[in-house]
Amino acid sequence: MKDQPSKLLQHLLPTFANLVWMVAFFIVLISGPRLMNADGDLGRHLTIGRYILEHTEIPLRDLFSHTMAGQPLTPHEWLAQVIFALADKLMGLDGVILVCALIIATTFRFVFVQARLASWTLGAALLVVMLAMLASAMHWLSRPHIFTFLLLAVWMTVLLQLRKGKVKQWWLLPALMLIWANLHGAFIAGFATWIIYGAGLFWDSLHQNIPEDEVLHPRFWRYYLLGGGAAFLVSLINPSGLGLWKTSLGYIGNDYLVNHTVEYMSPNFHNANFWPFLIFIALLLVAIGLRKKRIESGLLFTSAAWLVMGLYSGRNIPLFAIVAAPLLAQGLDELMSGVTSRVKFLGRLNDMDVRIQKVDAALKGYFWPILSVVIAVICFSAGFRFDAGKTGNVFYPQLFPVDAVNWLQENPQKGDMFNSFTWGGYLLYRLWPEKQVFIDGQTDFYGEAISREYAQVMNAAEGWQSILEDYQVEWAILPSKDGIVQALGSDLGWEIIYSDATAVILRRK
Asked: pTM of the entire structure?
């Protein structure tokens, strides 16, 4: 059988890495409405990004709420917000989803490439990247945290390259961190990974657990520390300087805010969305337990640490999947090789895998991702909707107060509002700057005090009326089925002025 394709096919056929990219890319496009509607923060990100584009300045004080107006603001996602707002300006919400598709697809291309380098079999790498995608899919949202997915994947790639002796690439760490620290507050994940991976390598060095053919470069530690140290210094190049670190670490240290934020809670394994994560863990345990070859402690320590963080907080599951992919690929590769060497039928599959890899290595069809983007842009421009429901990339009126805000634009209300937490971003997107919100999803900014007051009002707990009076709230927009609506409706000082299946607007008499 001829293993090498013709010259024409070499340039026409996509590589497996690009196939993975395209699969992820179009999955995101198909899932676009879910990415937008599963979270309420997109509107806030677009509003802040739009402000930066229009005023060519990054807001360092709050302009978006009446409860925290003028208070110092740490813009820890400003660059991502600008990217989203620019995409929205050029292509509307379709542009935002296109950006998300580009980021997520590129992330898992990096994951696949690292899994491929860690294993001899193509099948192991494909299985790992599929599991990583499934495990992280529920956190595929149109939010700046997807930039952390990509940057962690690239960051991990650089660490592995340094480990292989390419120490002159140390400068990539500060270069990545300069971008990361201005894109998303989870840039500290990069430093956590750098420390843990380094600790694993140091453990191996200390116990002389490194084979001669894998010995560290003589100047490895010099460049490893130089890269991490330089990365810390450039992380201070942001609008808030050291304040960025205080904000990112301060939120994690606030038990009330963390315990009342769904994505920070431990995964509920009775929810089928978390089952791929469970399968990933099970396969990793089996692969490590049955492995006969040496396991590098750098990968082991890093995977174990992010597994703990993923079990503690669901938002860390994608980061675990990205970091642990090479280790799982190594283990599955050894398992699959052991089985195929003993079973004749499966041995043929192994031979086929080898031949496919030879073909893949000869392919040069690098234009496929570019072609995919061009096709997506043309389709969006023509009004094509990728999602199965053909609703397009819009905010669902059954989840957001779309019709209520339409009414508000025709019947503007005087005074400050009280609003549902999850609607804060959408209300900013539709009503700012004419109206400021009571609260939105940026709880690290609003802090524990206002978050508690908000919860007190929403639960109609004792003293809720005085909170609305203290903030001089004149009207409220709330989900129709919330208990506070009944409490306000029965209060003689309030009246319902608008109502639909999703939202109710009430006003003081």
From this structure: 0.94
